[in-house]
Amino acid sequence: MVHGVSDDYEDDVLRSLRRITRAIDQHSRHLATTFGLTVPQLVCLRVIGEQGPLSPSRLAREVALSQATITGIVDRLVARQLVERSRISADRRLVTVVIIAAGTALVLQAPSPLQERFVSRLAKLPNDERMVIHDTLQKIVRLMGGDEIEAAPMLTDARDFSIEQ
């Protein structure tokens, strides 16, 4: 093997990974500075707006996040007066999360989460190309030692899941 050829591929792969990371980070920062939302908050707000009142556990399943993460997200959305917790059944222990007017207005103003745009573009690719991308990304995850890391299917800056959410 000629010295330099392998390094070029490695550098290009690392550069591509860095571009992906930066695109996610830039989108997350734009949402935070322009709308005061993290990507998970926006995704939850959209799901509640589309599906109507949801229990926190159902919301957690819908967005593939832990119950603890959802509790923090809902707390912040309630504090911002974008959603309300409601007890609509005879059992006062059962809580649902309901989007309110300010939340609906914000969802209409906010850009779609980066993953919506990505998924839409990915879906337009031929199946064989999608399979190659899938397989290649799975290999990259293994090469980086990330196969044991849990991840929700949303493109977001890791800081979006901090305790300060």
Q: What share of residues are in beta strands?
A: under 5%
CA-CA gap between termini:
49 Å
The residue ranges in which pLDDT falls below 50 over 5 or more consecutive positions are: 161-165
Tell the overall outline: elongated
* Mean pLDDT metric: 85
General description of the model:
This protein has helices spanning about 5-35, 40-50, 55-65, 65-80, 100-110, 115-125, 125-145, and strands at about 85, 95-100. The chain has about 160 residues and is mostly helical. The chain has a single domain (about 5-160), classed as Arc Repressor Mutant, subunit A (Orthogonal Bundle). A two-stranded antiparallel ribbon has the order 1-2. Helix 2 (about 40-50) crosses helix 4 (about 65-80) and helix 3 (about 55-65) crosses helix 4 (about 65-80). It starts with a helix and ends in a 22-residue tail after the last helix. Mean pLDDT is about 85; it is low at about 160-165.
